[in-house]
Amino acid sequence: MDLESFQASFDGEPGYLDWAAHGPLSSTVRDEVHADAELLGSGRRAGIDMVRAHVPEAEQLLAELLRADASQIVLQPSTTYGLQQALYGLAGGLLVSQAEFPSLTVTATRAAEALGSLQLQWLEPADGRVTAEVVRDALTDDTRALAVSLVDFRTGYRADLSALRDVIGDRLLIVDAIQGFGVVDADWAAADVVCGNGYKWLRAGRGTGFASFSERALERLAPVLSGFTGVDGDLPVDVVPQPSTSAAAFRVSTPDHLAVARLATALADVRDVGVDIIEREIAARASDVMYFADRYEIPVVTPREPEQRAGIVALAPAPQDAAPLAASLANHGITVTVRSGLVRVAPHVGTGGDTLRLFGDALAAFSSSRVW
């Protein structure tokens, strides 16, 4: 698939700028779902096996994109499932920002309360950005890991994984990658655990989660939540073997094969186009969003430097302007996320000029009605 074909797979109506919340399924993913559903409905062993074959295919594609080995990859129902596997299996001090998405803060708290082996070391960065400097100042001798989002869900700030690795040294780096995987070319080798999901930027739908575990993570994390598929060999009937020595140890049950088929299709599309090309295209769309925000004097809290952001552009109107701005966007057919006074705008490769014009018209209408 080339870039033009990839763009053509975005066949929704104009106005959608909410890819950080939900990614409408691509046309290629929808086609694969229909084909695989027919195969599973046939009752033929050959058809069922063809759909099941998407599991090693997805694992290999993830390994390629994450620059890892397939034995380090495990499919999960969601990002949070992968994070639970990592945090419940960790002992010692965990650095995590209180401003993180709840998949990290809630999971870390539950793990600490349930097992008593995890000690939370809360970060409180003034601007919500988990930088190398913030982490350096918070490290203690008891710190065993840092958990961080690759891209902050509020501001769109993109963490520098290489810099974080340099600061924490041999400690574990656990990354929630859902807002950046497949659309930014991050230094995945710097991370020990990478968890993501395909229902946003990958356009693969729910149930398409995954996690990778480095050799260091496999050595240090206990597979507390390992299920009967988390072993090597065949179905463990009449025996209870030790967990697998690979990332499979962090598997609970057999994955949803239709979900895996969606994920594999989306990953193949990304691989074929190239993450670097996708990143470039999204950066250009994000810059267009910032241009309109600047033109109508709406503050932007997302970093301007392309290397410090991904696809999220967070607008910070004055408190009294948040509701009118949201209303103007809705009235012009624009879909965004409004939360905590911020308007989160998230374009993708398929965001065309028609959507950006609607966005500009909405901001113009809001600006003309604003009372100065």
Uncertain segments are none
Number of strands: 10
Secondary-structure element order, as H and E? HHHHEHEHEHEHEEEHHHEHEEH
Structure classification: alpha/beta
Question: Strand arrangement, largest sheet?
Answer: 1-7-6-5-4-2-3
What's the CATH architecture name of the largest domain? Answer: 3-Layer(aba) Sandwich
The Cα radius of gyration reads 21 Å
Tally of separate domains:
2
> Tally the helices: what do you get?
13
Mean pLDDT: 96
Outline the biggest β-sheet. Answer: 7 strands, mixed
End-to-end CA span: 49 Å
Shape: globular
CATH class of the largest domain: Alpha Beta
The CATH homologous superfamily of the largest domain is named Type I PLP-dependent aspartate aminotransferase-like (Major domain)
* Percent range for β-strand residues: 5-15%
CATH topology of the largest domain: Aspartate Aminotransferase, domain 2
Percent helix among the residues?
40-55%
